[in-house]
């Protein structure tokens, strides 16, 4: 019970929401919601290319606070570990391996929470570049809100796959 309360507190304090792993969530380029602009689809903890649901098109997988390459759940294939609003490289939880900090709907570089280090911010289902809220700075749009781990998986695909 203590862990459930802690998890709920973390999610609410960070400005992100949780989602069921069974919901299919589409990620669109920019502000679009046109089916031809789907970058990837999140379904049952897996992020697929475009609208695919083919196992060969799995880009990353989410499981137990970790983001894995492809459909793997092998410890050697961990891209990130998500813990208490921090995103660590690989299996690490060492402070020197923090890639991003997620807080109040913003993604910061490393351990920073300085406004100059904001990489992106979320307003509803839209992700904007830096601190912007200008429609021309929308990086991608989600058709539903997602949890922290799922967001990190999508962020990775957006930045390193496309």
Keyphrases for this structure?
37% strand, 12-stranded antiparallel β-barrel, alpha+beta, disordered N terminus, Porin, 162 residues
Looking at the structure, the CATH topology is Porin
Number of strands: 12
| Share of residues in strands | 35-45%
Q: Give the CATH architecture.
A: Beta Barrel
Number of helices: 2
Q: Regarding CATH, which class?
A: Mainly Beta
Task: Tell me the series of helices and strands, N- to C-terminal.
Answer: HEEEEEEEEEEEEH
> How helix-rich are the residues, as a percent range?
10-25%
The secondary structure category is alpha+beta
Q: Indicate the mean pLDDT.
A: 90
- Shape from CA axes? flat
The stretches of 5 or more residues where confidence is low (pLDDT under 50) are 2-14, 17-21
Rg, nearest Å: 15 Å
- Termini, distance in Å? 40 Å
Largest sheet: 12 strands, antiparallel, barrel
Strand order of the largest sheet: 1-2-3-4-5-6-7-8-9-10-11-12
Q: What is the total number of structural domains?
A: 1
Walk me through this protein's architecture.
This protein is α+β, with helices and mostly antiparallel strands and 162 residues long. It has one domain: Porin. 16% of the residues lie in helices and 37% in strands. The protein has two helices and twelve strands, in the order αββββββββββββα. A twelve-stranded antiparallel β-barrel has the order 1-2-3-4-5-6-7-8-9-10-11-12. The radius of gyration is 15 Å and the shape is flat. The N and C termini lie far apart (40 Å).
Topology:
Blueprint: H1 2-14, E1 25-29, E2 38-43, E3 46-49, E4 58-63, E5 66-69, E6 78-83, E7 86-89, E8 98-103, E9 106-109, E10 118-123, E11 126-129, E12 138-142, H2 148-160
